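To the wet lab folks,

You asked to see what we're planning to order before we commit. Fair enough. Below is the target structure as tokens, and below that is the sequence we designed to fit it. If anything looks off to you, flag it before the synthesis order goes out.
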């Protein structure tokens, strides 16, 4: 271990393509088995086991046992946000969305909150209607109007303020190069959209799809084109 420069060790763990692929697919916060991660990384079971062991030792992943199977998850949201942020600096400014990436760029989960074009549109709407206002470099403050508005979506801001995590953070989106809302508020919004079936998850990735019901409910607020 490089004790003088631990960042070098961390960077080396992420830099290996198979491990990077595993970490990226786990950004949706859903546990996956070693076999699933081996397929994602396109490596053998033996090679996947080695990579997962290194990620566990490095503190990137945790593992839980269910019967004969072991399921791996990113250790916490801070690691997930760091990996997502690295996507911003590793994506060239001239990045153009390929057809295979279009769904991922439009809407995905960034661990426990919405990202992509949909997440940015949501954040823009919250700002434009003065439901949240920027405070400092990285935070949002929820206004009284915002509390009332979010209460209609059954989001209890007072309860969120009593959690140990930041209430509302600005998270730089690597595909849009603009901010989406993270923190306790971002997670609550994503949870509510899923509960109301306004969005639905892609089973094998962190892509989410805006449902017809969601488009109807959010069209005016997010200035979406109506079908």
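Sequence we intend to order:
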């Amino acid at each position: 271990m490089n004790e003088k420069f631990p960042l070098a060790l961390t960077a080396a763990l992420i830099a290996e393509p198979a491990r990077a692929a595993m970490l990226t697919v786990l950004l949706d916060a859903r546990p996956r088995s070693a076999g699933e991660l081996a397929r994602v990384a396109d490596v053998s079971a033996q090679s996947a086991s080695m990579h997962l062991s290194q990620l566990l030792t490095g503190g990137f992943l945790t593992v839980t046992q269910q019967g004969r199977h072991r399921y791996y998850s990113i250790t916490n949201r801070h690691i997930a946000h760091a990996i997502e942020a690295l996507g911003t600096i590793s994506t060239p400014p001239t990045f153009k969305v390929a057809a295979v990436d279009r769904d991922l760029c439009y809407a995905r989960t960034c661990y426990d909150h919405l990202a992509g074009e949909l997440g940015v549109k949501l954040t823009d709407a919250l700002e434009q209607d003065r439901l949240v206002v920027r405070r400092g470099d990285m935070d949002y403050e929820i206004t009284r109007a915002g509390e009332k508005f979010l209460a209609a979506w059954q989001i209890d801001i007072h309860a969120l303020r009593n959690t140990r995590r930041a209430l509302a953070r600005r998270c730089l989106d690597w595909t849009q190069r603009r901010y989406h809302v993270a923190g306790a508020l971002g997670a609550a919004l994503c949870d509510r959209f899923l509960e109301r079936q306004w969005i639905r998850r892609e089973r094998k990735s962190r892509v989410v799809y805006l449902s017809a019901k969601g488009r109807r409910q959010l069209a005016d607020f997010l200035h979406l084109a109506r079908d």
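Structural context that might help your review: The chain is about 50% helix and 20% strand. The radius of gyration is 18 Å.

Thanks,
Computational group
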